[in-house]
């Protein structure tokens, strides 16, 4: 589709708040206007609405294929975890104790005032925690399942809800309950476990970039940012349009921490009882927050074609007269020929939206939801064998009106798959270029950090620096310095040239690069 | 595949307990030996293992297609429900109060003795219930979403875990936590809501019969068996091999009960504020229990091809010598040509099981899991272009050995889809014939019931009787009489001839048929 240059003048956008004016408000507006989710009335919990849940279903389907492809098998483990399971691993419990929902009773009774209260007679002997993550309960199962070296590697995954009682919540990014997948694997030794940890990390990197069109940087996190109980935590970090970092997925090498706590031991080839090495890795509905803040614009969401519940929406311009029948027949034929195409190895998802309502209202509802291609078909289009098409990723306006490209119907059908692929690529390229332009490599000391991240700077990006990878008290000092600027070390990008020079924090020889950023 | 008659003599079966000897023990044995699930160590909660979860994934996929086909949209609602939501609907709360898990705290602290306790400082102001079902919390969302008659019907569904604190649990059939889908819809009037209730019921009936090969009888339940808060509850009832009934799915017309409690009101075409009529309908992991008790035999599970995670398993008879390479290449080619076939509108699911281990051990593991077709391929088969095939639904033995049918490879590939369809049909026909033979229509009074269901009778079936559909105290009396015999009225089969005669319980004119049975 050829479209003239975007005419920025006098544009009224579909949202009543722009990114540049108030990014947090804009984020809420996209969620509301694209009908992705809403507050539920239950503290910190959201209702995920059809378009938002549809994106999650796409994420589930495509991630699940990759998980199965790697030989990992899906299981389902209990929602409730006895307190004693947690108590076995001190660091893990310390990391989660502050945010756990605890079940203490299994029955309600009338309070005599028309209300209900937990029945004191039905108090649990041992309280149950609603899983914040499942290492402990899956570890207990692994201890039963792993007997011999022949049982390893043991590769499991579950799709589940988890609960972390967050004090400040934000839809998709930080909710008390969220949906995720958690992979849990057990291996004979560190080398095999680390290979799996990195396999999962690479799976997440390619998923984020190839499916969500969201560029990320993968690497190990510093010691102070590790998952409670992990020996090494790796993350993928994405840059949002306000320059902040979003940890979009993590993969942990857990050493023998959880194997010791749960007793995951196997008889090795020499007949010795040996502790297994475990890993865990997860991504969650948080990814949807990442998609919004990577691809949204002032007209709402732009949904990457691979995860769009509908990739093409056809809007017939109904007139409530005799012509409607022929128009609908034309649209239905168009729908059927599009639905036969394959894009990204699957059938094209196309919807003919026949609901009553004003065509322009319906158009803007789909624009805000970010459906990649929108077709408006009027009576004349139908007669002339034409379509009027709109690419959501480069919505443009002239004289305040959205301009559709008029095309011959057959030409559109032929080009549709190519357009969807082009949109997917364009969204990625745009996000990657913006991200790359916002990684600052000229800052070489803490004072430079303070300048770069000065309070009045709008949407600062990330700073890449070298450091000496301090540990213990020396690391604490760096973390404190950064904390004063509301900064954290996101991760250590993998690959790249060897580093030289000295660490701006410790003065010692630098050993690696780190990314410093504000973060969600 | 032609197979000689089953030679019953001197057969040693794969399970160490037979159905006829101890059905309950047999059920546990199938679950253990087919590696479907196991006790988790958390009271009443199970771990669903890969083969069991794989069946659930198949159920989810095929049911979800039907749900979407009906225009119902998936959403996700909170796990936690504030107590006050429940208190609004007295009958509903009375039905569930006795079995609700209650969250009272959101933080743990050290107890000073190395353990953990709920932090008294972190007590919730209002306790939260872990959803036993979601009418109340979805009703609250519907009250926000429904404003005008244009918003109706509102058709939503969620796939979720729910918790009902059961005192006596049994894997898949009755667990404290289980997985299900719950459809929730709102309509302008009773007629539209009832149409949806019956649509869901018919969806469940056809799913049970066409996909799970499990014959069911659909119909309304008597008043005393209604879902708490429902105006009418319909069920599908399946007969297990021990003659007991399993309620395998329910669909409820809820009238305006929940609309009143949550305030689901819309402006009708005349501008009046009007209460919506709602429905809910669900099936759960209980269906897997139904599949086991419908199709299992003394060698384990027989998994219906449509829900089998693998439909064909190829077992190469590896010899750890030079011949293995050619054998594996032959098997891989065979796998690839089978995987290209379509059965039931999807690609055939075929696994080449290359894991080390003795071939017969591996065979019996797959027999117990109930994979529909098992192929054993030895070196000679590979050289001769043959396969040795086994149909799991009619496993037969001669002289204590399982006899495979030898076939030309190409002939097998050509017939495979037909065999899978034949297995699906054969499992259904077998279950239907058994069920039909076990519905007793000759019992005409309560004394006859006592005889038919006498304690020493092994695996009694169901009794179909007529009755006058009493209500209130008269119904209570019937229920009490049946309870003394451990019987319940399952439902009123829909369709069929008009009834005549008088009700054996009340003496009044009979108006409909009922099914009386022991039940899970």
From TrEMBL, chains A, B:
PANTHER family: BIFUNCTIONAL GLUTAMATE_PROLINE--TRNA LIGASE, PROLYL-TRNA SYNTHETASE. This is Proline--tRNA ligase. InterPro entries: aa-tRNA-synt_IIb, aa-tRNA-synth_II, aa-tRNA-synth_II/BPL/LPL, Anticodon-bd, Anticodon-bd_dom_sf, Pro-tRNA-ligase_IIa_arc-type, Pro-tRNA_ligase_II_C, Pro-tRNA_synth_II. SUPFAM superfamilies: C-terminal domain of ProRS (SSF64586), Class II aaRS ABD-related (SSF52954), Class II aaRS and biotin synthetases (SSF55681). It catalyses: tRNA(Pro) + L-proline + ATP = L-prolyl-tRNA(Pro) + AMP + diphosphate. It holds the Pfam family tRNA-synt_2b. CDD domains: ProRS_core_arch_euk. Homodimer. Catalyzes the attachment of proline to tRNA(Pro) in a two-step reaction: proline is first activated by ATP to form Pro-AMP and then transferred to the acceptor end of tRNA(Pro). The gene is proS. Its EC number is 6.1.1.15. Belongs to the class-II aminoacyl-tRNA synthetase family. ProS type 3 subfamily.
């Amino acid at each position: 589709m050829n479209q003239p240059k975007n005419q920025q003048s006098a544009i009224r956008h579909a949202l009543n708040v722009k990114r540049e004016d108030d990014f947090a408000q804009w984020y809420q507006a996209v969620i509301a206007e694209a009908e992705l989710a809403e507050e539920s009335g239950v503290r910190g919990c959201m209702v995920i609405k059809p378009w938002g849940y549809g994106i999650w279903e796409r994420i589930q389907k495509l991630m699940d294929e990759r998980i199965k492809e790697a030989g990992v098998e899906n299981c389902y483990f209990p929602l409730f975890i006895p307190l004693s399971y947690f108590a076995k691993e001190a660091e893990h419990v310390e990391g989660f104790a502050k945010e756990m929902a605890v079940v203490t009773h299994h029955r309600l009774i009338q309070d005599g005032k028309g209300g209900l209260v937990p029945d004191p007679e039905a108090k649990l002997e041992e309280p149950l925690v609603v899983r914040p993550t499942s290492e402990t309960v899956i570890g207990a199962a692994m201890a039963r399942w792993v007997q011999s070296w022949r049982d390893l590697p043991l590769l499991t995954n579950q799709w589940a809800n988890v609960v972390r009682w967050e004090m400040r919540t934000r839809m998709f990014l930080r909710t008390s309950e969220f949906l995720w997948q958690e992979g849990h694997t057990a291996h004979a030794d560190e080398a095999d476990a680390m290979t799996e940890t990195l396999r999962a990390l690479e799976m997440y990197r390619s998923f984020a970039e190839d499916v969500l069109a969201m560029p990320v940087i993968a690497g190990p996190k510093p010691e102070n940012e590790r998952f409670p109980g992990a020996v090494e935590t790796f993350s993928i970090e994405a840059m949002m349009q306000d320059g902040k970092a979003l940890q979009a997925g993590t993969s942990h090498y857990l050493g023998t921490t959880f194997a010791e706590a749960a007793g995951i031991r196997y008889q090795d080839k020499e007949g010795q009882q040996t502790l297994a090495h475990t890993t865990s890795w997860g991504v969650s509905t948080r990814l949807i927050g990442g998609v919004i803040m990577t691809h949204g614009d002032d007209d709402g969401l732009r949904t990457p074609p691979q995860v769009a519940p509908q990739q093409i929406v056809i809007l017939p311009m109904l007139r409530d007269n005799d012509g409607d029948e022929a128009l609908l027949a034309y649209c239905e034929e168009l729908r059927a020929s599009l639905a036969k195409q394959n894009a990204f190895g699957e059938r094209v998802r196309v919807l003919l939206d026949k609901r009553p309502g004003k065509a322009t209202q319906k158009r803007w509802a789909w624009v805000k939801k970010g459906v990649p291609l929108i077709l408006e078909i009027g009576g004349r289009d139908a007669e002339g064998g034409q379509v009027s098409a709109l690419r959501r990723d480069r919505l443009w306006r002239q004289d305040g009106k959205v301009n559709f490209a008029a095309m011959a119907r057959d030409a559109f059908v032929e080009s549709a798959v190519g357009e969807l692929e082009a949109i997917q690529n364009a969204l990625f390229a745009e996000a990657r270029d913006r991200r790359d332009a916002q990684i600052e490599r000229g800052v070489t000391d803490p004072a430079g950090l303070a300048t770069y991240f000065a309070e009045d700077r709008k949407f600062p990006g990330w700073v890449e620096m070298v450091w000496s990878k301090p540990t213990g008290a020396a690391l604490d000092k760096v973390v404190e310095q950064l904390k004063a600027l509301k900064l954290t070390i996101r991760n250590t990008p993998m690959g790249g040239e060897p580093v030289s020079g000295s660490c701006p924090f410790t003065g010692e020889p630098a050993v690696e690069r780190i990314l410093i950023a504000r973060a969600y």
